[in-house]
Design goal:
The protein is about 25% helix and about 20% strand. The protein is built from 4 helices and 8 strands, in the order ααββββββαβαβ. It has helices at about 1-20, 30-35, 125-130, 140-155; strands at about 55-60, 60-65, 70, 75, 80-85, 110-115, 135-140, 160. The longest helix is centred in the first third of the chain and has 18 residues, at about 1-20. Belongs to the NDUFAF3 family. Its main location: mitochondrion.
């Protein structure tokens, strides 16, 4: 008898479940791309100490750092910002990063903003960066700016060398 009751209840349960309309939430879920993009965190904290650099935006030709717009490539070491000579990814060499042979303390990591796309870093350049004692993170400039912000806010000793977002390998 128990088996017969089960056979009658199960189809009724299935019919009931099919009739119920799922509740639709008003909240939208972030896409996977947004959920894993550091770029979304670029403006996570608006108030930062005066002596701490913070990327606030970017264009195809430059960056906004602490409310000031800069055109061209940038190099940031120890919360000091300077113009950087490479205009294309192909111009990034050990010589263009030679300042890291004398900087103390040596940054823990160099975030290399490749422009619009992530580019493969030559073995020679990787060896040079490793010889300075730094780790390398080569990513597109949009995410490089955001990564710099996050690591800098954590108090890490971090450096950034970024090409404008519109730049490519060429």
């Amino acid at each position: 008898m128990a088996g017969g009751a089960c056979r009658r209840v199960l189809p009724d349960l299935v019919k009931t479940l099919r009739r119920e309309v799922p509740k639709i939430s008003n909240q939208t879920l972030p896409s996977l791309r947004r959920a894993f993009s550091l770029y979304d965190q670029i403006n996570l904290i608006d108030s930062v100490p005066e002596d701490q650099l913070r990327f606030q935006g970017y264009t195809d030709t430059g960056f906004t750092v602490n409310g000031v717009k800069y055109e061209g490539s940038l190099l940031i070491i120890d919360n000091k910002l300077m113009s950087w000579s490479p205009k294309r990814f192909s111009e990034i060499t050990a010589e263009s990063l030679s300042i890291f042979q004398i900087v103390r303390p040596v940054p823990e990591i160099l975030i290399l903003g490749c422009g619009r796309h992530i580019e493969p870093v030559s073995l020679e350049l990787r060896r040079f960066i490793r010889s300075t004692g730094m780790k390398l993170e080569a990513i597109d400039s949009r995410n490089a700016a955001s990564t710099y912000n996050i690591l800098n806010e954590e108090g890490r000793v971090v450096a950034a060398a970024l090409l404008p977002y519109g730049e490519t390998l060429q």
